Structures are given as C-alpha cells and as structure tokens.
Amino acid sequence: MKTMKKTYSLLLFLAIISCTQDFEDINTNPNSPVSVQPSLLLRQVIYDYGEQMSYEGFTAGNLLGQYTTALDFNLFDRHNLKSPQLGGNPWPIFYENLRDNEIILNLSQENTSFSVYEGPARIMKAYMAAALTDLFGDVPYFEAFKGNQGTVTPVYDSQESIYMAENGILDNLNKGISAIESYEGTIPLEGDILFEGDLESWVRFANSLKIKYLMRISSKLDVATELQALFNEGNYIQENSQNAVFDFTDGEPNNFRLARLRIGDFNNFVMSETMDEILTNLNDPRISKLFRPIANSDMGDEYNGLLNGIDASSTTINVSDYSLAGTIFRENTGVLDANFMTSMETHFLLAEAAQKGLITGNVNQLYERGVSQAFDYWQVVLSNEYLTGPGALNNGNPLENIITQKWIANMINGYEGWIEYRRTGYPQLKTISASLNDDLIPVRMPYPGEEEALNNSNYTEASDNTNGNSINVNVWWDEE
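Structure (tokenized):
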C-alpha cells in the first residue's frame, strides 16, 4: 500500500531575458528573474514528463501492449502509427523535457551553488533518453538540446552510441551516481517531487535503471559482471516505499488526465482480449481493480475483452458488452501514480537475469517478491494460493511467467509492456482484428512528420536506415 500521499500544486513561471548590450536598459524587465531556478525546472520536468507519459502510456502504449483496445478513433490500434489519436505522439514530450533538463544540467556545472542538481539531472537525462530511443531507435541526441548554441538540425545518433558512448545512457547513470556521492555541499535539492530531496533515493533509482538498461541490451553485450555487482551490492529500489513515483490526486488539477477526457472518449478504451485471457487463466483478482464488469450482465462480476484493432467503420460494438477501465483511472485517480521505476519491476528484471544465468540468485524468491509487491502496488490482496497455483513460477514457462507478471503490473506504463514484448516475445500478443500493417506487430514508433519538415536532411538519412521510416525495422538491441 502507498504510505504517503504527495500532492503537488505546480505554480511555475519561467522568464528568460534575451537582450543585446546596446539596448539592455530598455529591453530588460526589472520585474522578471534574470535566471532560471533549477528547483523550478526540476519540478516542471518531473511532473510534466510523468503526467504526460502516464497518459500516453495508458492510451497509445496500452494499445500497442494489448492491455486495452479502442472501439473508435482507432487507426493507431490498427497499427497505423503515423495517425495518432487520443495519444500516440510522445516525440515532443521527450524533447521538450530533455531540453529543460539540459538547462538544469548546464546550470549545475556552471554554478557551484547548483551542483546538487547534477546527479538528478544526469539520471533524468538517462531515463528519458532511454525511453525515447527504445521507442524510436536512432534519434537526435548528442547534438540535440543545443538550440541556444545554433544547432537546430541535429544529426540522428545510433541507438548503440546513445546507450554506450560517453554522456550516453549508462555513462550518465554512472556520472549521476558519482556526482551525488561526491557532493559535499549543504544546499538541499529542491523541486524534487520524486524523493523530496533524498539523494540516496536518487542513487537507488539510478541503480535500478542500470539493471533495467543492462537487461535491455543483454542480447547484444555481456552484462553479467555488472549485473552481479549491482545485485550483490543491493543498493537498488527494494521496497514499494522507495519507488520513483509521484501520486496523482482525485480532483483537478493534478488528477490522472484520463479523468478529464469526455466520457465518450474514456469509454473508447475497453479491456483487450489478450489481457482478459491472461488474467482469467491466472484467476487473477487484479482484474476487478484494473477493469469493470460488463454492464450487460446479471451476474455482477462478469468481464469480457475485445480483440485489438477492429475496423470501426464496418463493425458495430456495444460498449456494454465489454469491460471498461477501472474506476481508478477516472473517478478515483488518487490511487494512481506517475510511475518512473519501481521495486516490483526491479525484482522481475533480477528474476529474469537469474533465470537466464546472468546473475547468481534465487529465481523463485525474486519472482515471488516481484508478484507480492505488484499486488501491493495495485492495492489488491494476494492470496496464499496464488503463488502455489496459477501464479506459480513453474506453472508453465518460468521466463514467460516472469515477463507476463511484469507486463500486468505495468498497466499504467503501457509502452514498457510493448517494449519488453519486443525484447522477450512475452506475453504472447495476438494478431489484431483488422491490421493496417500486414498483420505484423510493430517493433518501433515512426518518426513524426514534423521531423521531415524541420530536420529534413538528417531525417532523410534516418528514414533510409529504417526502410522508409518503417515500423517493422528492429531497433539495435532487438536485432537478430
């Protein structure tokens, strides 16, 4: 169960003065701040990214990961990913927040009084950059976020370099940890709505992210030694109380954005057939938390899912015949949080690593801890019979069970479920009803159309490298 509610009212103003030397007196507003405070920017980046990507993850990510399906406005659900509807365009979310985070990082290195922000800024940069490249593949990175230096058409960098090069994902996590551990100042970290300024929590967050990203690239590189060292040290997110999350509220302005959709748009999302079959086969009580019973039933507890990707123009669907998303996603969103990294996900990753022989650890113990924490996270009672019956590690394929349990737990973060399906093949997603992608499940997001217009030469090269910006070309860590 969540032990504390953290409600944040974001009152943020950012004024950046741009003036020339000759006209300084008449162009300077004496009532505006002359610099951006990193505490305000850190609060903004964490909240804006978390709030927007939680909505994106539920709407578009859950369609790709087959948690839910869309009844209408569903070209995206039919895998025409170049037609985002009610979500499906995360590109600007990444770049706007990476840009603002870069300002924090620069300020931390330019002014010693802001040095406490370097570690968190590097960790956030690694976190957001990984999510970006895992969705799209090669993206602008090393030359990006430098518009104030005149670089407005950055080149696309390879995913391998974004992960492995200096100032890439893994390097920034290491440098972020080092910056925190070497910080000897007394100025506190402010604007931190993840950990309330606790730098040790940021280190645990970074180490959990290292476990995640090492597993993500484990088919390309030997990561066993690094994983074992992280596991042995144990300084990663171990308990739900240590999760990298911030809570939504029941009412505006900080409730889950799905609650602010028109009722017709909210009712567009129903349980997928994939999710229905998995939860039903597991006799999983979380079904009543994540979804509602169908309206057209006298039984009161009957659930029904729909195969993804229907052709809404030729298929008549009665929403009362299918299970809508649970009340926690609309009426009671104070139960939800913006999920950056959790103990449950960390333990499922370690269970997978142990199952594959990448670390020496007790697979069943790690798996059962992940399941227990997942039930606790969703505030559902875990019965004694679940882990000895349908939810047992060895009830079928242990690896599939580990990934499937992680998939269920990540419903608030649906892009992760799709990414991990691409990496592992689990859970076994279905061929959708009326595919607009030749019955293929996409393996990357397409670059948005504005890139072709605003960064044409670099976009063209990246498009050529992905067979015309195809959604069926594997990213680096997913290549055979």
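Residues 1-34 have pLDDT under 50 and may be disordered. Strands lie at 68-70, 139-140, 156-157, 244-247, 269-271, 337-341.
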